[in-house]
Design goal:
alpha/beta, binds inosine, binds zinc ion
Length: 362
Amino acid sequence: MLLSPDVVRRVPKVLLHDHLDGGVRPETVAELAAEIRHDLPVDDPADLGRWFADAADSGSLVRYLETFDHTVAVMQTAEALSRVARECVEDLVADGVIYAEIRYAPEQHLEGGLTLDEVVEAVRAGFEEGMQAATTPIVVRQLLTAMRHQARSMEIARLAVDWRDRGVAGFDIAGAEDGYPPTRHLDAFEYLQRENAHFTIHAGEAFGLPSIWQAIQWCGAERLGHGVRIIDDITIDDDGNAKLGRLASYVRDMRIPLEMCPWSNVQTGAAASIEEHPIGLLTALRFRVTVNTDNRLMSGTSMTREMSSLVEAFGYGLDELQWFTINAMKSAFLPFDERLALINEVIKPGYAALAEPGPGAR
Ligand SMILES: O=c1[nH]cnc2c1ncn2[C@@H]1O[C@H](CO)[C@@H](O)[C@H]1O
Ligand SMILES: [Zn+2]
């Protein structure tokens, strides 16, 4: 029997790829927009959630990203940023997430007069409040994103290093991929490496192997945001055997984590459907696959939904879900001892408890 969404909700989950401005509650977008008189395409929060999901369901990353104009617009004060950050933690707790790295681009939150440091502090305060109030333990860290079409990556990389002992775990670049290769930001990545800092790069989502190759071999990315197009370097022969090209081999041999976001890829056209999503093959080939939400608002999703969809499409059970979760925890930008403690004290016991037959089941 397939795992029910209710069981999936209860297993401990780890989330490495989730955008703060992509996970705002529709009611919060509506309330904050009313306060600042920002015009929304629809007013009713119920319709607004649907509007985001429909508009994002465009088959194109560029059009998907246009919907962020509305969430970013309402996140321009310290109060709004802290609120969105606190609610994010509440929603993750309800979804059974025990560790999360949440990313956003500080440079997009300066229109109300905040400085970059004030933006990071507001998000830190919101996460802290959310963690303190949580009924089940959760650890949440920030990843600071630089927008790949802009030219502020060096500044944001410095910001990530300045805040690394105050809730910031790493750095990322995001935004339209085609036309904006990661090597545009090489100075920022080289700086981070010299600083022994962590970073991931969105690569292999709307553009193919050259983007993944640059991210890893030129820029030194520790993880790949999406990375789905690594499938282009894998061929299946007539007998069904997979042959990996040199880049795909490197990614698998080096255990480079793939931050896969199945529903987001279906919306942007990077995958035709969940059933046809490369995550099935990459999991079978034992790449270091992790499961993520990307944008809970735009994709109308949650960790429970992403994993439940994989359960339905590929028949995964608790073993596979635990494998994804431990893969993610091993790949987190958190110190080794803290990762190990979460694996041994939270994740493994959590799965073991659900695997045991309940009273009356025997
Ligand atoms: O899947 C994605 N690919 C590339 N960029 C993205 C994706 N989702 C969100 N963003 C971009 O990242 C910014 C900071 O959070 C968002 O404002 C959005 O423009
Ligand atoms: Zn993303």
